């Protein structure tokens, strides 16, 4: 993944019906470690990372980079939504440097539509700063929650391929696609 490119950052916090998308702060560190150490979160993305390693390596303010939003519910992190540039050498037949959406939510926050609400807001922000650009998304075919979310957000399947020893669902969202 490479960074998103020239963009005014940080943006003002983005409010949705129930959530706020904002940049990370030091108070998010413990929740970021929970996210990365969770076996459920890691199930289809290469596994959980050891907690002691995370305690050593996660910076005081975790994940501060253009395109990374903390999803905040009532003042606490429940997940992250990212927009990065897909590396050209990865599979997925799109132009090099196409933007890619990623999402990680704490298991207690699954099943309420929070990920859909947050991703739709992040895609709206992206469309405002990079008008007319498509966004891609890659997720294991077996990750049914993630594929359902991608389709709800307006991504349509382009191809499937094998990567990291698993079949991947690769989708694209055109700039004018409707979403949840
Ligand atoms: C992928 C992931 C973000 C999906 O989370 P999610 O909560 O299932 O996604 P959504 O926000 O779309 O919520 C959908 C669910 O909320 C329910 N829901 C409840 N209230 C809702 C509301 N007000 N609006 C919308 N949906 C609502 C829906 O019915 C649906 O339930 P179901 O799963 O029982 O069908 C989450 O599973 C996750 O973080 N996984 C680990 C990380 C990962 O694999 N990321 C993919 C890498 S690209």
Q: Main attributes?
A:
180 residues; alpha+beta; Aminopeptidase; eight-stranded mixed β-sheet; 5 helices; 8 strands; binds coenzyme A
State the gist of this model.
This protein has 180 residues and is α+β, with helices and mostly antiparallel strands. It has helices at 29-37, 39-42, 51-57, 114-129, 144-152, and strands at residues 14-15, 20-22, 68-73, 76-85, 99-105, 135-140, 156-163, 166-173. It has a domain at 14-131: Aminopeptidase, CATH 3.40.630.30.
- Into which percentage range does the β-strand content fall? 25-35%
What is the CATH top level name of the domain at 14-131?
Alpha Beta
- Give the low-pLDDT segments: none
The CATH architecture of the domain at 14-131 would be 3-Layer(aba) Sandwich
Terminal Cα separation, in Å?
26 Å
Strand order of the largest sheet: 1-2-3-4-5-6-8-7
Number of helices: 5
At the fourth CATH level, what is the homologous superfamily of the domain at 14-131? Gcn5-related N-acetyltransferase (GNAT)
Mean of all residue-level pLDDT scores: 94
Cofactors and ligands present?
Answer: coenzyme A
Order of helices and strands: EEHHHEEEHEHEE
Main sheet attributes: strand count, strand direction, barrel closure: 8 strands, mixed
* CATH topology label of the domain at 14-131: Aminopeptidase
How many strand elements?
8
Lay out the secondary structure:
Elements: E1 14-15, E2 20-22, H1 29-37, H2 39-42, H3 51-57, E3 68-73, E4 76-85, E5 99-105, H4 114-129, E6 135-140, H5 144-152, E7 156-163, E8 166-173
Parallel strand pairs: 5-6
Antiparallel strand pairs: 1-2, 2-3, 3-4, 4-5, 6-8, 7-8
The protein binds coenzyme A (COA).
């Amino acid at each position: 993944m490479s960074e998103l490119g020239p963009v005014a950052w940080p943006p003002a916090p983005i409010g949705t019906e129930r959530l706020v998308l904002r940049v990370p702060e030091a108070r998010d560190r413990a929740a970021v470690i929970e996210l990365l150490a969770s076996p459920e979160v890691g199930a289809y993305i290469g596994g959980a990372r050891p907690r002691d390693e995370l305690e050593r390596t996660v910076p005081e303010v975790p994940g501060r980079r253009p395109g990374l939003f903390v999803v905040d519910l009532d003042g606490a992190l429940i997940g992250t939504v990212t927009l990065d540039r897909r590396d050209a050498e990865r599979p997925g037949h799109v132009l090099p440097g196409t933007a890619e959406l990623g999402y990680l939510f704490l298991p207690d926050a699954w099943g309420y539509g929070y990920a859909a609400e947050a991703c739709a807001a992040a895609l709206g922000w992206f469309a405002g700063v990079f008008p007319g650009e498509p966004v891609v998304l890659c997720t294991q075919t077996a990750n049914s929650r993630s594929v359902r979310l991608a389709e709800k957000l307006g991504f349509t399947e382009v191809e499937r391929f094998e990567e990291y020893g698993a079949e991947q669902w690769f989708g694209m969202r055109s700039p004018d696609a409707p979403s949840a």
